[in-house]
Amino acid sequence: xxxxxxxxxxxxxxxxxxxxxxxxxxxxxxxxxxxxxxxxxxxxxxxxxxxxxxxxxxxxxxxxxxxxxxxxxxxxxxxxxxxxxxxxxxxxxxxxxxxxxxxxxxxxxxxxxxxxxxxxxxxxxxxxxxxxxxxxxxxxxxxxxxxxxxxxxxxxxxxxxxxxxxxxxxxxxxxxxxxxxxxxxxxxxxxxxxxxxxxxxxxxxxxxxxxxxxxxxxxxxxxxxxxxxxxxxxxxxxxxxxxxxxxxxxxxxxxxxxxxxxxxxx
Length: 266
Ligand SMILES: NC(=O)c1ccc[n+]([C@@H]2O[C@H](COP(=O)([O-])OP(=O)(O)OC[C@H]3O[C@@H](n4cnc5c(N)ncnc54)[C@H](OP(=O)(O)O)[C@@H]3O)[C@@H](O)[C@H]2O)c1
Hints:
By secondary structure, this protein is α/β, with parallel strands linked by helices. The protein has 2 domains: 5-24 and 184-264, no CATH class; 35-183, 3-Layer(aba) Sandwich (Rossmann fold), CATH 3.40.50. 58% of the residues lie in helices and 10% in strands. It contains 11 helices and 6 strands. The protein has a 6-stranded parallel β-sheet. The longest helix is centred in the C-terminal third of the chain and has 28 residues, at 186-213. The radius of gyration is 34 Å and the shape is elongated. The two termini are 26 Å apart. The chain binds NADP nicotinamide-adenine-dinucleotide phosphate. NADP nicotinamide-adenine-dinucleotide phosphate (NAP) binds at residues 35, 58-63, 82-84, 87, 102, 118-121, 125, 147-149, 168.
């Protein structure tokens, strides 16, 4: 197809520039639409300090995404509980936290500020019996985020304890709203991308001229060298030292000016 590396580089540069333009001049990236980012958004909204004790139950794909965001936002105190310790350990290593098996959850004595629960279990993992043990008699309001379907937090604990409860269904409807918000920006995005597409042929043509002109300085230099060393060599050799130097200086001056002119026209 006759596409070379320079063409591909130009295409990539233009695509990157267009995406930056879209990102900074539309609201397409403003509101999160994934469950994991909405969950972390809730933690931020609740103004949990970076050293807040976060207990995470489950070490599957969803909690992996949540953990990456916790790391991004610099939450530094995460403890992971999972049925299999290997996966818990992998996740804990990634976020510089600690790992335990799920069976040791009831005997965890360090309390928590935020509990994130997300496993594939079909019944409650955080039960009426386990929750008070996790609380360690702390009285302050806790943030409990249950991302599991079906829920893994027994909802009856909400009656007896002070809990800011976030569940996956609520996040899903927020995700839908945010998606609709992004949808409204799509037309603007198309306009920006179309303007890049329209300008691309001219941009491409300019680049071809640039490439064609880029060989000119080398050619000018070669002509000068050839004139001095071949065409006028005998006459130049016959000149006295001072005149010879003057002629070479004049030739160098001409070369420099012509190269400068050819670069400026690029
Ligand atoms: N992916 C999403 O976009 C999304 C969004 C919202 C909600 N969810 C829900 O989140 C939950 C987990 O999804 P995922 O994508 O993270 O799944 P996943 O990658 O398959 O991970 C499942 C996790 O649950 C644990 N687990 C499975 N069965 C269990 C049981 N009976 N008791 C205790 N732990 C158990 C697994 O432990 P082991 O490592 O020991 O196997 C693993 O940590 C599901 O309820 C899903 O519907 C997912």
